[in-house]
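Postdoc handover notes: sequence design on the structure in folder B. Input tokens:
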């Protein structure tokens, strides 16, 4: 049985210690596997973390494009983020895509101007080991990929007229486990990424390139009229600090970014269509610490008011 990868696009979760998983029970027909779901930044996957799956395509040549729209209501400080994505699969092993991320400013004096107009996101992924390769049921799908963000002038860098480029390189493994209970398959998704961005670029650049882990947990139920309802949560470890610079380009402060969690509901109206709709609550960052570079003991606190924010997404494959 092949589990449809389009079921696993659900909003973000962040955990400081997590190296974790996506578990999925799936009670409907395998023909629904033709569907697709794009994450917030464009890759096939969860809200912001990728799956090993790639956008649907034939063994030779290109598939049909997949498009998506996402909204993150970040609150009165961070503002609202909108993304529009297009992703194309090739030869059952590759995908590439582009996402435009636009920002509507918040209304908190002194803080909201740190978030600027938006950024561009380019991504690519290659599946290096197909799931169940060599007809071995315990072999996970394994993929490597990358994400590049340009014109990312959020937080500090934007305040001084600077634009920054940052990105991720990741390795992800996805496995559907049916040996325990064929009627309730379990999907395990876990990976590691190297990144120099804070909060997927929403917080600008991180001071250094570091390894972060990710995964998720979801349960799927059959809804009315052969629809599917998925209850999910995702985890993705993040750099704890943001690179903040003053007008001279020197570091003036660091931020202690707390962990956050997201809860989501996905609705797949019909297994006959490559469509899914997602709703979620993101717990991103509430009160955070700021640590001035000139005096590490002079810690102050800033409330970003983004501890429980609504998120929405919709994906459609042609």
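Designed sequence:
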């Amino acid at each position: 049985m092949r589990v449809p990868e389009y079921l696993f696009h659900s909003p973000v979760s962040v955990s400081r210690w997590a190296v974790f998983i996506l578990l999925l029970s799936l009670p409907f027909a395998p023909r629904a596997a033709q569907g697709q779901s794009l994450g917030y930044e464009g890759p096939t996957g969860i809200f912001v973390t990728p799956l090993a799956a790639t956008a649907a395509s034939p063994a030779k040549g290109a598939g049909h494009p997949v498009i998506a729209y996402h909204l993150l209501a970040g609150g009165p400080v961070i503002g609202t983020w909108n993304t529009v994505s297009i992703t194309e699969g090739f030869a059952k092993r590759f995908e590439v895509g582009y996402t435009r991320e636009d920002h509507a400013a918040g209304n908190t004096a002194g803080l909201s101007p740190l978030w600027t107009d938006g950024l561009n996101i380019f991504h690519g992924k290659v599946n290096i080991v197909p799931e169940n390769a060599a007809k071995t049921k315990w072999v996970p799908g394994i993929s490597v990929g990358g994400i590049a963000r340009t014109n990312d002038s959020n937080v500090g860098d934007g305040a001084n007229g600077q634009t920054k480029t940052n990105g991720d390189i990741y390795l992800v493994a996805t496995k559907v486990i049916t040996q325990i209970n064929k009627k309730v398959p379990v999907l395990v998704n876990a990976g590691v990424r190297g990144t120099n961005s804070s909060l997927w670029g929403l917080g600008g650049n991180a001071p250094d390139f570091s390894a972060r882990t990710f995964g998720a947990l979801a349960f799927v139920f059959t809804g009315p009229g052969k629809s599917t309802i998925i209850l999910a949560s995702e985890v993705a470890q993040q750099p704890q600090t943001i690179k903040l610079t003053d007008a001279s380009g020197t570091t003036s402060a660091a931020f202690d970014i707390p962990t956050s969690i997201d809860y989501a509901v996905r609705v797949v109206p019909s297994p006959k269509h490559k469509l899914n709709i997602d709703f979620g609550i993101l717990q991103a960052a509430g009160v955070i610490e700021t640590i001035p570079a000139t005096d590490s003991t002079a810690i102050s606190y800033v409330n970003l008011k983004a501890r429980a924010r609504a998120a929405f997404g919709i994906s459609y494959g042609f």
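Context for whoever picks this up: The first strand starts at residue 66 and ends at 73. Don't rerun without checking with the PI first.
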